[in-house]
Write a structure and sequence with these properties.
Blueprint: H1 3-11, E1 17-21, E2 27-30, H2 32-37, H3 42-45, H4 62-67, E3 74-83, E4 86-99, E5 102-111, H5 113-157, H6 161-186, E6 194-197, H7 198-206, E7 215-218, E8 223-226, H8 228-245, H9 253-261, E9 267-272, E10 278-283, H10 311-322, E11 325-330, E12 336-341
Parallel strand pairs: 7-9
Antiparallel strand pairs: 1-2, 1-5, 3-4, 4-5, 6-8, 9-10, 10-12, 11-12
């Protein structure tokens, strides 16, 4: 069996585009799926150097690229393959293999046109959402400022409990506007994560949260990759949720006490997970019933559920934007415990 037949036998059941080239950078074999992807025949591609198909390749640096691979190494990249006027965005998995003393790069090539289109649509959707929330915020803040001004004037001449209730409702509206803007921003994917320290960011978050009569403790540290500003927002929201409510259960006595008196004596703890890369935020309040744990991240802004707002929804958006996972469970003291996993530790 010659090498062409051997190559063909190896890739006949792959189901995706395949291109194989050697140390000279020229394709030794391509399958039908790859040729169809570029709208040509296989014979046209065989013998073509890879730098004529992948525009970002510089012929002069191909030798350095080739020498940078180790035997059996695999690399994944997204790029564009072009041939005879056809350009296709692709995801390529390249593996170095040695067969009968000769070394080759085996590339499996997948068309990601649909993925790129979805990314563009998502980006446009995010831009529209941000523009919408900006307009809504502006249009709401103006009458809100006017209302606050009149309440302040009336408070100088009239001593009525109803004015305090109006002032409280206006403050609540202002918080919801801020949360709406954050929710639009926090849903964006993280493009440039940087190394962060859990204890460092948690300490900064703690400084922005009114603990009422409660305590916020920061324990074990872990360093990982994140957007520091958005990560701090996540911690602030989890801390504030614990301090204000003791739990997110609608029937929580701690929550009712927090709503009526502005806080409780809940203890909040932030730390690193012991068995896998990640972190937790937990409290010693009444906890969250298992049946409610799947819905705690849903926005809740109705009068029947006044405490949650968009805080935990923003937490979920930040987690998703980083590609992490978040789960709600029970702390050792029976309170609420939020565990975030899937973080990428600092290299």
């Amino acid at each position: 069996m010659d090498r062409s037949e051997m190559f063909e036998e190896m890739v006949e059941t792959v189901g995706v585009g395949v291109g194989i080239y050697g140390a000279d950078g020229r394709y030794r074999y391509v399958n039908r799926a790859y040729a169809d992807l570029l709208g040509c025949d296989r014979e046209s591609l065989v013998g073509t150097p890879i730098w004529e198909v992948v525009p970002e390749f510089d012929r002069d640096r191909f030798e350095d690229y080739w020498d940078s691979f180790e035997g059996g190494e695999t690399r994944t990249t997204q790029t564009v393959h072009e041939f005879e006027g056809t350009a296709v965005p692709v995801s390529v998995v390249t593996t170095r293999k040695t067969i009968e003393g000769a070394t080759y790069h085996f590339g499996t090539i997948r068309d990601i046109t649909d993925l790129r289109e979805r990314e563009r649509e998502l980006e446009a959707q995010n831009e529209r959402l941000e523009a919408f929330t900006g307009v809504v915020s502006h249009d709401l803040r103006n009458p809100l400022s006017v209302a606050n001004g009149y309440v302040e004037i009336l408070s100088e001449d009239i001593d009525r409990d109803e004015l305090e209730l109006v002032d409280s409702a206006l403050d609540r509206m202002s918080i919801l506007i801020d949360d709406l803007l954050r929710l639009a921003r926090e849903g964006r994917a993280i493009d440039n994560p940087a190394p962060v320290s859990l204890t460092g960011v948690a300490a900064a978050a703690r400084n922005t949260v009114d603990s009422g009569g409660g305590t916020i403790t920061i324990e074990d540290d872990i360093r990982f990759m994140a957007d520091e500003s958005r990560f701090q927002q996540l911690l602030e929201n989890l801390m504030r949720n614990a301090v204000e409510h003791g739990s997110t259960s609608p029937d929580s006595e701690a929550r009712r006490d927090a709503v009526e008196h502005g806080g409780g004596d809940v203890t909040v703890t932030v730390g690193a997970l012991p068995d896998e890369p990640g972190f937790y935020v937990e409290d010693d309040g009444p906890g969250i019933p298992p049946e409610d744990r799947e819905t705690v991240f849903y926005p809740a802004t109705s009068d029947s559920d006044p405490g949650l707002g968009l805080g935990l929804a923003i937490v979920k958006e930040v987690v998703d934007a980083h590609g992490w996972d978040v789960a709600v469970t029970e702390s050792a003291d029976g309170g609420a415990r939020f565990e975030v996993t899937g973080v990428r530790t600092e290299a």
